[in-house]
Design a protein that fits this description.
By secondary structure, the protein is of the alpha/beta class. The structure holds adenosine-5'-triphosphate.
């Protein structure tokens, strides 16, 4: 059984890490037929009249699955964020960002294993900003009952199906009593349906951040509105080795888009030094999603093989620069492919 998926290489380090990921997925035996589409600066460079061309959105709507590299939104010129627009257009309301310690990547903490779930469609990302008068700007934070209930239900379902035991909501309802208050109220109410299986608590976000960096092991699933989720995801990436090792997925409507937490990293783009692991791990999430939703066990086998291979590479010191190693993007991909071959030979 094969699967068709849309690949958006993106820009900056996107094409480099996408190429590496595609190569490793193929070497692991994943049967993916890629349909390549452009977004962001890359789309403009290819002559599209928009940073989010209709044929890119339509391809995802048709095939339901995409693996997406980072896309830079041009500054100025009236462009709004491609990532935000894509999530809104496809109704990808739930972002899932697993954060796990990796063998071979020593950090201050061992055994971090948590998931950040982020509401993806509203909050301050609604993008409603106004100049009230010269020197006075307002940005509107939007919270709707439907979206708050929807993300809470999504988070508890996600936690339940993965055997997670606790959801902690990060909020600032002591200040934003209405918007964050609604978010909290919905999470609290939805918890009633899951209280036999999943514990629930709430943390004011500033105190929550302090506890996260003191003792990340006490957290299991963290549920946040949009902006908090963005910030907390990067903070959590820092607990396990950085943005080079933190994957993500956006779910909702009936499409799923898998993408690393990191951006296009213009400071290292084009140098062949970016760590492809975050996008590769997002690709592994995509394979597990295909296995779950389409019952294709070969995807689980490929996902397990890739995980085993990159763990073996990391523990034997094959690492990119961001993790203290010396390998370039494509050399790291070579090392993972060679490891996959060795694993294949042993079986
Ligand atoms: P955005 O706002 O688009 O999410 P950002 O401001 O979070 O982007 P990134 O582009 O993610 O910024 O980069 C932040 C830092 O992390 C940069 O120094 C970058 O080089 C580094 N970085 C990000 N991704 C990787 C990667 N895959 N490999 C190595 N370093 C990376």
């Amino acid at each position: 059984m094969g699967h068709t998926a849309v690949l958006i290489p993106g820009d900056g380090i996107g094409p480099e890490v996408s190429e590496a990921t595609k190569r490793i997925l193929a070497a692991a035996g994943a049967q993916i037929h890629w349909i390549e589409r452009a977004a962001g600066v890359a789309a403009l460079d290819q002559g599209a009249d928009s940073v989010l061309p209709a044929d890119t959105v339509n391809a995802i709507l048709e095939h339901k699955i995409a693996l997406k590299g980072p896309c830079t939104t041009p500054i100025g010129g009236g462009f709004s964020s491609i990532n935000v627009a894509l999530r809104k257009k496809l109704n990808l309301y739930g972002a899932v960002r697993p954060v796990r310690s990796l063998d071979g990547v020593p950090t201050r903490y061992e055994n971090v294993d948590l998931i950040v779930i982020r509401e993806n469609t509203e909050g301050l990302y609604a993008g409603i900003e106004n100049t009230i008068t010269e020197g006075v700007i307002t940005s509107l934070k939007v919270a709707t009952l439907d979206a708050c209930r929807r993300i809470a239900r999504f988070a508890f379902e996600y936690a339940l199906t993965r055997g997670r035991k606790r959801i902690t909501v990060f909020h600032k309802a002591n200040i934003m009593k209405l918007s964050d208050g609604l978010f909290l109220k919905c999470a609290h109410e939805v918890h009633d349906d899951y209280s036999n299986d999943i514990a629930y608590d709430e943390q004011i976000i500033d105190a929550g951040c302090m506890r996260l960096v003191q003792d990340p092991g006490r957290f299991d699933v963290i549920l946040c509105e949009n902006l908090y989720g963005d910030v907390i995801s990067d903070l959590c990436a820092g607990l396990v080795g950085g943005l080079g090792v933190t994957p993500g997925a956006n779910f909702g409507g009936d499409a799923a888009v898998f993408e690393a937490v990191h951006g296009s990293a213009p400071d290292i783009a084009g140098q062949g030094v970016a760590n492809p692991l975050a996008l590769l791990m997002s690709g592994v999430m995509m394979l597990r999603h295909l296995a779950e939703t389409r019952g294709d066990e070969t995807c689980t086998v490929a996902a397990d093989r890739i995980r085993e291979a990159y763990n073996a590479c990391l523990t034997s010191g094959h690492k990119t620069r961001d993790l203290g190693g010396t390998l370039g993007t494509s050399e790291f991909a070579d090392a993972v492919c060679a490891q996959l071959q060795r694993q294949g030979a042993v079986r």
